[in-house]
């Protein structure tokens, strides 16, 4: 009887490990492909990642874990000479399967483009909300 209890306890410990600690980090990288600068400000409900000015070919990146409830959301405000906008850059219900470990975004003259991991073509395109 004691052996069965130990097996159940071990099973639940392993289950809890995978539920709470076993999720791999997600990485987000935003690259400025425009010739001009772009200012970005990214944050979540709990984390303000600050304001960053990216020149041509510069990038900003961060990593995090998706929360237990799968509601993790990071959004970024973009301001460039071509336009501006605020967009959801990581949204757990959209990006868990899109971005196994890396979510790549490129800032271009016509907006912000998102790429599935290891893809060469964008699958999300956020046009600038307001042209300057």
From TrEMBL:
Protein name, as recorded: S-protein homolog
GO CC annotation terms, alphabetical: extracellular region
Keywords on record: Secreted, Self-incompatibility, Signal
Matching InterPro entries: Self-incomp_S1 (IPR010264)
Source organism: Cephalotus follicularis (Albany pitcher plant)
Similarity annotation: Belongs to the plant self-incompatibility (S1) protein family.
Record keyword Flavoprotein present: no
A Pfam family reported for this protein in Swiss-Prot or TrEMBL: Self-incomp_S1
A Gene Ontology BP annotation from the UniProt entry: rejection of self pollen
First-listed, main subcellular location of the protein, grouped into a coarse class: secreted
Signal peptide: 1-24
Compartments (UniProt record): Secreted
């Amino acid at each position: 009887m004691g052996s069965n209890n130990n097996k159940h306890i071990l099973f639940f410990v392993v289950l809890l490990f995978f539920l709470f600690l076993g999720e791999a980090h997600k990485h987000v990288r935003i690259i400025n492909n425009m010739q001009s600068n772009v200012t970005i400000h990214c944050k979540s409900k709990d984390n303000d990642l600050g304001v960053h000015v990216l020149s041509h070919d510069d990038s900003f990146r961060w990593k995090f874990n998706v929360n237990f409830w799968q509601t993790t959301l990071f959004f970024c405000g973009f301001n460039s000479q071509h336009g501006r906008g605020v967009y959801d850059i990581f949204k757990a219900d959209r990006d868990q399967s899109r971005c196994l470990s890396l979510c790549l975004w490129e800032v271009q003259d016509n907006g912000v483009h998102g790429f599935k991991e290891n893809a060469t073509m964008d699958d999300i395109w956020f046009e600038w909300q307001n042209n300057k």
